[in-house]
Amino acid sequence: MSLDNRYTGGCQCGAVRFRVEGTLGDASICHCRMCQKASGNFYLPLVSVRGARLDWTRGEPKRFRSSSAAWRGFCAECGTPLTFEAPDGVALAIAAFDDPAGIAPTIQWGVEAKLPYVDGIPKLPSEATMADISSAPYLAELVSYQHPDHDTDRWPPEERP
Prior knowledge:
By secondary structure, the chain is mainly beta. Helix content is 4%, strand content 29%. A hairpin with a 5-residue loop joins β6 (62-65) and β7.
């Protein structure tokens, strides 16, 4: 968690960046089918920024009206899900923050649509990414083009290998 109540984050490609100043609200996981589809995942972790100041510091999300009550913001360049915008305020995708580790969900919503295997995921065998180097030799030379987890003056860099 940010000591000075200042948080930054953005999308995978760096075209959209944000800054939040103030206290974050409730952090949650939503299992509803709409959040599953919006994130392309089993559930969508979100944190409310209602009551805090949200500024888009590079670019701005493109928005899709997912229901009569809500809009979903995402990066038009890379597709990263960024916002859930409803009449009662805006929530940001927790993993879009530069330091998401301190933003722990405290409640689950939409559990009627929870996929039946989600609770068993922590019991699955686990391996580090590089443990598969013999099966996926491309990992040894992988170069990430993702935006780093901090603000930059410019993005993308001019040269990429």
